[in-house]
């Protein structure tokens, strides 16, 4: 089998980045606007808007903390300026200390310690300017694809998702796994009804049991709320695209996982401990699951869509793959690859799979995706508890 | 007679997926491994949507990919359009376990 290489950046913790961002990381909602303004002042920085970081407790606190740290330690990030307020539950200092363990440059700016918003923006911008200049002096080097964690996702699915783009991504998943890389499957909600197929591929009984546990927990959330899960999933657009039930959507979604063994099942925003195919427990909500995978260390994401979507991440390039040609034509400025040729009978699954694989290596080596060019910096945490 | 594209994925399936807009009244021949059907499509079937390849009774499972994707909520005739008006998902349905609190009206 031929090997595959991409051009990336080695980080102090040994991991390899495909981007070289300086992240302005707001650890609290009250600092998000200041962080956004730093990105407007300083070229080469990224940030995101969110509503979290205060009055969260227990496992909900831990999950948000893990997500912040995961975003900061993602290998696509060169260095981090943590922006806090000062009085919040998720102390910026704790997040900065945890990120510093990766060996990358980290500084903390708290609004209450820097004379308010303007002082904090100026201080963060000064620090970020130095970091961007240092980052820009790095030169890409060749690395083996085994250094990559590739997230997979489907959003705005239609009946073609399970026939074209998802099985083509499944073909790519197998290619990556066979070359020593890691592929992340997520969207637990959208695997309800297909769990037996994945449990049968688990490397051991413990992983198979976990598959049934996370599916049961997700299904029980809907049952405990006493709601019709179809009000949330499949969505109105999914139904218009021909998907009738969640089970039908799930069987199509599972095709992204290819055919190789399932190595482990990890929690939201956790880093995989194994190579090969891994499953992260996330909701089906696109932005929340994308955030979870990137916080878990995914450097690139393959994202299939039938209805079309602009979604992207501030930190990881997201490659958009259209399941059908009419949508690809309508939303060319958002979509990177067309898998609709499979539906038209013009191209085989394998041929499209190879095109996606080539695009993955090009993207990992620096080619910008449409969502990056359009600055689609989405971020959303899967909240699992109430705020107090 | 024009030919229309569709896909039946597994011989166990009782539905097929249209890959063209198929007008009502079209007669189509389906072969999936050892099974062969000749069906008159009863309604317009849009691209990506499903129709029954055999008669399906209310309460029977709907099969696609050789797997269960839901249950028929009414009797479905051969060649009839199969979607949310006559199929219900079985999984995660808190409304079912709590006395039909659906807000979708389907």
Automatic annotation (TrEMBL), chain A:
Q: Which GO terms describe its biological process?
A: D-galacturonate catabolic process
Q: Which UniProt keywords are present, listed alphabetically? A: Lyase
User: Is DNA repair one of the keywords UniProt gives this record?
Assistant: no
Show where the D-galactarate/Altronate dehydratase C-terminal domain sits: 145-386
Matching InterPro entries, A to Z?
GD_AH_C, GD_AH_second, UxaA_altronate/galactarate_dh
Can you tell which superkingdom this protein's organism belongs to?
Answer: Bacteria
Tell me where in this chain the D-galactarate/Altronate dehydratase second domain is found.
8-135
Q: Which Pfam families match?
A: GD_AH_C, GD_AH_second
One of the record's GO molecular function terms = lyase activity
Q: Which family does it belong to?
A: Belongs to the UxaA family.
What this protein is called in its record is Uncharacterized protein
Automatic annotation (TrEMBL), chain B:
For this protein, what is any one GO molecular function term?
lyase activity
User: In Gene Ontology terms, what is a biological process of this protein?
Assistant: D-galacturonate catabolic process
Q: Which UniProt keywords apply?
A: Lyase
SAF domain residues are: 13-88
Note the Pfam families from the entry: SAF
* Protein name as annotated: SAF domain protein
What species was this sequence derived from? Geobacillus kaustophilus
